[in-house]
């Protein structure tokens, strides 16, 4: 079994006023193992981005623990260690139009963090590093001097990926990295992420709002609904033996590649069920976890 790179324990991230909080993330726990891809899936507003942003410390968390490489991130105060966390954890964003400054060149975007982290000795070395990164994501050296607005959506997301790789991180949170791209380009970007993961031994938290592409990239999948993880398990287990009705509903929305079975596909709507205080996480099969009350779990199984 691989090592735990990241441990999230009872994470809560509330917004708004204490008397009327928006519980964006409401007590979730999961581990991410070194070298794996954990898919985090759920409809818009379920708390996926907030989870990612809390992990990279864009927020002061409301409660819980985030442990990276055995260290509790929120307890770390030394500048040197914070800098190291910033280097090790990177994020790729959904919208490559909004997340890249159009008035900066690809080279400038990619090399922004080089200086603070002392990653080059002179101008030549800096150019070489930029060139190597561009080539790693399927672009070429000559692209370094072009402005972000001159690239297509897919190319921009490649620049976003190069930027995320620029400091040699070990962990990348990809927040719906293909949702804004043409369907024809989505598979290319997923394949690129897979290739980079093999070459660089990267660990991914891959966020998506549906289960269609997640299947191809994830080793395990966590399903999020209303700030909670309602189901978590190996990708195969989630696909073949879903227990939570929300997971079943998400699965029923995935188109089948075979036209005959696609014609027979029936979408299962999810009827929101109120969960009372007795709901908890149940291990329904080895390493397959479902959130609910005892009675719900018995019914769903
Ligand atoms: N900075 C914020 N302030 C207030 N509410 C927020 C903030 N960020 C997210 N939310 C709310 O938290 C919930 C979860 O949002 P988000 O994490 O963006 O969901 P997802 O990424 O799954 O679509 C939503 O109801 C959203 O409106
Ligand atoms: Mg989001």
Automatic annotation (TrEMBL):
<dbReference type="GO" id="GO:0005524">
    <property type="term" value="F:ATP binding"/>
</dbReference>
<dbReference type="GO" id="GO:0055085">
    <property type="term" value="P:transmembrane transport"/>
</dbReference>
<dbReference type="Pfam" id="PF00005">
    <property type="entry name" value="ABC_tran"/>
</dbReference>
<keyword id="KW-0813">Transport</keyword>
<dbReference type="Pfam" id="PF08352">
    <property type="entry name" value="oligo_HPY"/>
</dbReference>
<dbReference type="InterPro" id="IPR050319">
    <property type="entry name" value="ABC_transp_ATP-bind"/>
</dbReference>
<keyword id="KW-0067">ATP-binding</keyword>
<comment type="similarity">
    <text>Belongs to the ABC transporter superfamily.</text>
</comment>
<feature type="domain" description="ABC transporter">
    <location>
        <begin position="6"/>
        <end position="251"/>
    </location>
</feature>
<dbReference type="GO" id="GO:0015833">
    <property type="term" value="P:peptide transport"/>
</dbReference>
<dbReference type="InterPro" id="IPR003439">
    <property type="entry name" value="ABC_transporter-like_ATP-bd"/>
</dbReference>
<dbReference type="InterPro" id="IPR027417">
    <property type="entry name" value="P-loop_NTPase"/>
</dbReference>
<dbReference type="InterPro" id="IPR017871">
    <property type="entry name" value="ABC_transporter-like_CS"/>
</dbReference>
<protein>
    <submittedName>
        <fullName>Oligopeptide transport system ATP-binding protein</fullName>
    </submittedName>
</protein>
<dbReference type="InterPro" id="IPR003593">
    <property type="entry name" value="AAA+_ATPase"/>
</dbReference>
<keyword id="KW-0547">Nucleotide-binding</keyword>
<dbReference type="GO" id="GO:0016887">
    <property type="term" value="F:ATP hydrolysis activity"/>
</dbReference>
<dbReference type="InterPro" id="IPR013563">
    <property type="entry name" value="Oligopep_ABC_C"/>
</dbReference>
């Amino acid at each position: 079994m691989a090592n735990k790179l990241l441990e999230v324990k009872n994470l809560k991230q509330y917004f708004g006023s204490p008397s009327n909080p928006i519980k964006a993330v409401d007590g979730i726990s999961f581990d991410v193992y070194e070298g794996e891809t954990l898919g985090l899936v759920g409809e818009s507003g379920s708390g996926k981005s907030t989870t990612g942003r809390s992990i990279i410390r864009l927020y002061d968390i409301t409660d819980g623990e985030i442990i990276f490489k055995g260290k509790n991130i929120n307890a770390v105060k030394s500048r040197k260690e914070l800098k190291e966390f910033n280097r090790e954890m990177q994020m790729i964003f959904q919208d490559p139009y909004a997340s890249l400054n159009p008035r900066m060149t690809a080279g400038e975007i990619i090399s922004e963090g080089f200086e603070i982290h002392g990653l080059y000795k002179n101008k030549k070395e800096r150019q070489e590093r930029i060139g190597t990164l561009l080539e790693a994501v399927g672009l070429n050296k000559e692209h370094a001097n072009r402005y972000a607005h001159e690239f297509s959506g897919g190319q921009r997301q490649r620049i976003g990926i190069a930027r995320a790789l620029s400091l040699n991180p070990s962990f990348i949170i990809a927040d719906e990295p293909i949702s804004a791209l043409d369907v024809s380009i989505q598979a290319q970007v997923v394949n690129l992420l897979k290739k980079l993961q093999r070459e660089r031994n990267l660990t991914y938290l891959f966020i998506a709002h549906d289960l269609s592409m997640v299947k191809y990239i994830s080793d395990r999948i966590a399903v999020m609904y209303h700030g909670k993880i309602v189901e978590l398990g190996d990708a195969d287990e989630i696909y073949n033996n879903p227990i939570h009705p929300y997971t079943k509903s998400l699965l029923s929305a995935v188109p089948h590649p075979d036209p005959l079975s696609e014609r027979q596909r029936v979408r299962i709507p999810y009827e929101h069920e109120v969960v009372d205080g007795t709901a908890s996480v149940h291990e329904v099969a080895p390493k397959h976890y479902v959130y609910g009350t005892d009675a719900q779990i018995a019914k769903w199984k």
